[in-house]
Amino acid sequence: MHIPDGFLDYSMCAITYAGALLFWVLAFRKAKTSLTDRQISLMATLTAMFFAVQMMNYPIIGGTTAHLLGGPIIALTLGPYAGTISMTIILLIQALFFGDGGITTLGANVWNMGVIGVFIPYAVCIAFVKVWKSSKALFAGAFVGAFLGDVLAAIFAGLELGFSTVFPYAAPIAVAAMTIHHSLIGIGEGIVTAGVLRILLQSRPDLLQLSKLTQNLIQKEGV
Amino acid sequence: MRKDKSLILIGIIISVFFVIVGAVWLSQSAETLDEVAEHFGVGATSIWNPPIPDYEISGYEGNIPMNITVGIVFTLLVFGVTLVVGKGLRAPMRTENEV
Within 13 Å and on the Cβ side, how many CA atoms surround A33? Predict the structure, then answer.
């Protein structure tokens, strides 16, 4: 999903940079008041882990490959603001050192994977817990949220490409091409997200940045 | 504190495992966007020449030990950068007891 330089019009680059900038400011302000030393260690570990995970390309359909993004797990364990910061660091290093994603398109890539791919899973998971109020809803929400986060990020990438004149597609074609493949990636992301969340809740719930409602549920039902 | 150090160590070991698997078995990348772009003859026009294009050092393409080394070095770099950014972000006197 990493959009390289040259695929987007400069106007699209500017719009997506503006969107990403807004969330960078928000993320740095919020993370400042919410992260503890221990959570910063976990954030660094998870960021490094998902940088490594993104090097594993597994085959999907039509001769294409995919990799997990990791944004949903970081968002659900440390909050979406830490997730945006983590994904930005990964995307910046990938673009600067490896040419994976571009410099002019960094705003778009951060918007797709570091904002949409992080805030949607978090919001969906919280909504599941608020509506169904059970620990099962937490894991179901983690799965659905991660899936939707991946798919919506792909839809945004398709729209950015489709509305750029340098890419010879109409938006619906670009969106369809991106969405079909990323639905499969989303299923994998959902399974891994729910699984990792369960392991962390069982082993180190003290490290997680969870809402009060979720914490009460875990205390009441156990996980 | 000891628990935290163990967690970091486990995380780094798992990351190294992912790097090895990625370099040895799952290194072939053919992302949807790249394939579609190639099909329609759209090419990337980079404004920046990355020092390690496609995660391989020039002259060492296909060299698995070198690719693993690059992966591990940059995984540790990502860990370090995130730690520095995180520590820089943290409010100066914030402690665990405040949470």
Answer: 4
Contact A5 B44 (CB under 8 A): yes
Q: Which amino acid is at B60?
A: Y
DSSP output for B1-33: -HHHHHHHHHHHHHHHHHHHHHHHTS----BHH
Q: Is residue A210 part of a domain?
A: yes
Which of the residues A36, A55, A61, A179 would you substitute to probe the B interface, choosing the one with the greatest number of B C-beta atoms within 10 Å?
A55
pLDDT at A77 over 90: no
The secondary element (H helix, E strand) that includes residue A137 is: helix A135-162
Instruction: Point out the least confidently predicted range of A75-79, A115-119, A174-178, B26-30.
Output: B26-30
Q: Does any CB of chain A come closer than 8 Å to the CB of residue B13? A: no
Distance between CA atoms of A212 and A197, rounded to whole angstroms?
A: 16
Which of A27-41, A93-107, B15-29, B84-98 is modeled with the greatest confidence?
A93-107
The residue-averaged pLDDT of A215-220 equals: 65
**Overall number of domains in chain A:** 1
Q: Does A51 map to a domain? A: yes
On whether the CB atoms of residues A53 and B16 are closer than 8 A, the answer is no
Alpha carbon distance B9, A42 (integer Å): 11
A2: in domain: no
**pTM of the entire predicted model:** 0.89
Residue B98: name the closest of A181, A39, A192 by CA. A39
For every residue of A61-123, DSSP letters joined together read: STT-EE----HHHHHHHH-HHHHHHHHHHHHHHIIIII-SS-STTHHHHIIIIIIIHHHHHHH
Q: Are A111 and A18 in contact (CB under 8 A)?
A: no
The reply to whether A4 falls in a domain is no
**Chain A residues within 8 A of B88 when measuring between CB atoms:** none
How many Å is the Cα radius of gyration of chain B? 19
